[in-house]
């Protein structure tokens, strides 16, 4: 019996078969999902045992053959028997890393997918079905910093596969073994990196760090910044500020192993650094050109000289005839010093010139009183390399003058204004102040001073009775105190002192009363002041004053009231030498050793006088003029041990040359003498020979006197027969 069944309802067919009822339910739909798709429908066969009454029709069945496939799991996986026009459902699960293909192969009618559930079309015949899965693929993106790598594009990678990269760091970089990104960590083999198994899209990042290199720096005669060893990155340029030491110049050549760079002023920049390296800076001592020139002398060397900075140079100077070597050297080079004929400059710090101009060995400094008149410069004294003297210019009277060795002599001040004479005398220096006696026309002859800058001024009016004069004379310095003899119109001429600050005061009234002690011939030896003084009891003898105790007689050569009249005192080797007359041997050479006075020699035997005068010491030899009665008045010498002897017999026989004004300069004795032919002229004695320096006045003698040395130049007054008696100089 046919039974019509709504498609959405179940139908139960009872078919009697051989006494058994068979029930089939086909194409029945669960009414709980009546409005949904025909999913989850399974074809089932329900067999009910019952009689076959022949009322159910026969239904065909077909076999669905499941073809096995790799990489998927099919449920059910066995062949299936399916009722005709039924659908069959398979669950298809792809293996890990695979994706089920939507394409279904085989002969079964095409069905449909829902997720991983596949429902065939209506089965109408035996058929086969085959599912498949494809392996998953992922995108592997790569990037890098300071490296190159291969492959360098994004890669498509199958599930579980690995990717190998060849990674090369950029030049000057070191590859990092740390790999960034999201891909599974892999391993390195040299410069080859292999990822871990790829199971999803991921990224990988390679990197390399720039290499750092050490630069060490050194220098000679320079300072540089930075001064310590430093580290720089590959390819970096390193700059240094380099300063040459004083009087050095930077060398453009840079040592060391760093790539050669370039200079910009005092800044040096290396080439690109690609390895540990060093730089070495240097500076060379500056050299300067010294250009010498000469007139009236010959110099050696005479050509230009190249002198390193800070060094000096030496030239040997030979004066031409009638010329001498100057004390002053011209040019722009730093002034140096002389040693004999050799001149050595100061330290050279730049290109410069040196000019040596010979000077006339003997010449007049200046005609202070023009024409034939005489300025008569006398009483020469030196303070701070300036020569002071008194002179008369014919207008201002006899006043104080000065000469610095270069410029024209000039008057210091017209102390006695107008044509009056201040007549300065006994010029003596103490503590850079010049002291002297002078008459300003108002106070008489008193003690004055001049400091080299301010106008001269009177120290004190010691004899302040009207215009009476204290007449301070014989000025001498001992232990920072100025001693002299003067009269205050009460005690007569006695010993006075002035300490430079307080009012001058009398040391002692050696010969009490108004008569005075007639003090003269001052000399200092071993911090004791010696001088000649007179008392009625002792006569005129050698006296002394130690600066503390009262003055006293040092030696009474002529006992009692007699006088030895000592003169020309000088000190040599701790003894005092002088001329004295003991009343027996006449005026002869004596000495005083600090305790006892004794006769050195009776040069002119008997009571006659040899009259030793102008005593001077040079190179531990005492020179003086004396007359032995045989050779006339000539130059003598005494070494302190052997008997005095004749040094030079300028005029042979009993006639004498009368040497006077003896002065020592560079172990040579200069003096005035008359050889009987040229008149009184300037002479010199070098320890062996006596020679005339020059015949200044060829007609009658120039009469040189007042000899004084300043800066190795001999100054004196002389008369050349044309200009009167003026200031002259001789440069040995």
Estimate percent helicity.
Answer: under 10%
Rg from alpha-carbon coordinates? 66 Å
* Average pLDDT number: 90
Tell me the span between the first and last alpha carbons: 173 Å
Major sheet characteristics:
5 strands, mixed
**Which class best fits the helix and strand makeup?**
mainly beta
Shape category: rod-shaped
What is the count of DSSP helices, taking H or I runs of 4+ residues?
Answer: 0
- What is the number of beta strands? 72
Approximately how much beta-strand content do the residues carry?
over 45%
- Sequence stretches where pLDDT stays below 50 over 5 or more residues: 1-56
What does this structure look like?
- By secondary structure, the protein is mainly β.
- It is built from no helices and 72 strands.
- The strands form 19 sheets. Strands 13, 15, 17, 18 and 21 form a five-stranded mixed β-sheet that branches. Strands 22, 24, 26, 27 and 30 form a five-stranded mixed β-sheet that branches.
- The termini are far apart.
- 32% of the residues are buried.
- Residues 1-56 have low confidence and may be disordered.
Sum this structure up briefly:
With about 725 residues, the chain is mainly beta. Helix content is about 0%, strand content about 50%. It is rod-shaped, with a radius of gyration of 66 Å.
């Amino acid at each position: 019996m046919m039974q019509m069944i709504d498609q959405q309802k179940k139908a139960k067919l009872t078919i009697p078969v051989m006494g058994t009822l068979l029930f089939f339910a086909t194409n029945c739909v669960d009414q709980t999902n009546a409005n949904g798709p025909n999913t989850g429908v399974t074809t089932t066969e329900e067999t009910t045992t019952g009689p076959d009454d022949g009322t159910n029709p026969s239904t065909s069945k077909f076999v669905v053959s499941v073809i096995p496939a790799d990489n998927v799991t099919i449920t059910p996986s066995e062949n299936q028997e399916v009722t005709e026009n039924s659908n069959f459902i398979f669950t298809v699960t792809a293996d890990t890393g695979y994706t089920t293909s939507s394409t279904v192969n085989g002969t079964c009618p095409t069905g449909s997918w829902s997720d991983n559930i596949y429902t065939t079309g209506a089965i109408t015949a035996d058929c086969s079905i085959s599912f498949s899965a494809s392996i998953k693929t992922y995108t592997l993106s790569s990037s890098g910093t300071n490296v190159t790598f291969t492959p360098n594009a994004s890669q498509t990678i199958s599930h579980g596969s690995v990717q190998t990269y060849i990674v090369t760091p950029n030049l000057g970089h070191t590859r990092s073994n740390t790999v960034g990104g999201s891909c599974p960590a892999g391993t390195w083999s040299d410069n080859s990196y292999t990822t871990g198994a790829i199971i999803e899209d991921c990224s990988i990042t390679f990197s390399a760090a720039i290499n750092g290199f050490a630069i060490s720096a050194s220098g000679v005669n320079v300072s540089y910044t930075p001064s310590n060893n430093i580290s720089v990155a590959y390819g970096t340029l390193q700059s240094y500020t380099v300063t040459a030491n004083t009087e050095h110049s930077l060398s453009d050549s840079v040592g060391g192993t760093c790539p050669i760079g370039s200079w910009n002023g005092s800044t040096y920049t290396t080439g690109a650094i690609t390895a540990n390296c060093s730089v070495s800076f240097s500076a060379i001592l500056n050299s300067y050109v010294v250009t010498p020139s000469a007139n009236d002398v010959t110099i050696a060397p005479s050509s230009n000289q190249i002198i390193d900075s800070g060094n000096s140079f030496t030239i040997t100077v030979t004066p031409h005839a009638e010329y001498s070597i100057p004390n002053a050297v011209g040019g722009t080079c730093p002034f140096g010093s002389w040693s004999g004929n050799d001149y050595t400059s100061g330290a050279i710090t730049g290109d410069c010139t040196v000019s040596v101009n010979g000077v006339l060995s003997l010449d007049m400094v200046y005609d202070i009183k023009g024409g034939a008149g005489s300025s008569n410069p006398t009483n020469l004294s030196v303070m701070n390399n300036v020569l002071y003297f008194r002179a008369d210019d014919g207008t201002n009277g006899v006043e104080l003058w000065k000469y610095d060795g270069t410029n024209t002599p000039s008057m210091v001040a017209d102390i006695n204004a107008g044509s009056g004479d201040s007549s300065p005398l006994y010029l003596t220096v103490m503590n850079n102040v010049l002291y002297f006696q002078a008459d300003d026309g108002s106070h008489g002859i008193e003690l004055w001073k001049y400091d080299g800058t301010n106008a001269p001024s009177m120290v004190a009016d010691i004899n302040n009775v009207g215009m009476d004069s204290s007449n301070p004379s014989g000025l001498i310095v001992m232990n920072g105190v100025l001693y002299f003899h003067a009269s205050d119109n009460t005690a007569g001429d006695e010993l006075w002192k002035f300490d430079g600050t307080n009012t001058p005061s009398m040391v002692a009234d050696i010969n009490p009363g108004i008569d005075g002690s007639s003090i003269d011939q001052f000399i200092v030896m071993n911090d004791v002041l010696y001088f000649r003084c007179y008392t009625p009891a002792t006569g005129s003898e050698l006296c002394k004053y130690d600066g503390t105790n009262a003055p006293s007689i040092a030696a009474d050569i002529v006992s009692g009231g007699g006088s030895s009249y000592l003169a020309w005192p000088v000190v040599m080797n701790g003894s005092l030498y002088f001329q004295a007359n003991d009343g027996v041997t006449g005026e002869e050479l004596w000495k005083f050793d600090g305790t006892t006075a004794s006769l050195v020699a009776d040069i002119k035997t008997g009571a006659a006088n040899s009259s030793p005068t102008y005593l001077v010491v040079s190179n531990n030899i005492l020179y003086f003029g004396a007359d032995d009665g045989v050779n006339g008045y000539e130059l003598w010498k005494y070494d302190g041990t052997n008997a005095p002897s004749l040094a030079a017999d300028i005029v042979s026989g009993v006639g004498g040359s009368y040497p006077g004004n003896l002065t020592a300069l560079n172990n040579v004795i200069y003096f005035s003498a008359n050889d009987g032919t040229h008149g009184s002229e300037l002479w010199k004695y070098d320890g062996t020979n006596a020679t005339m320096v020059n015949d200044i006045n060829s007609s009658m003698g120039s009469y040189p006197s007042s000899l004084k040395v300043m800066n190795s130049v001999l100054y004196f007054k002389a008369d050349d027969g044309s200009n009167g008696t003026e200031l002259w100089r001789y440069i040995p």
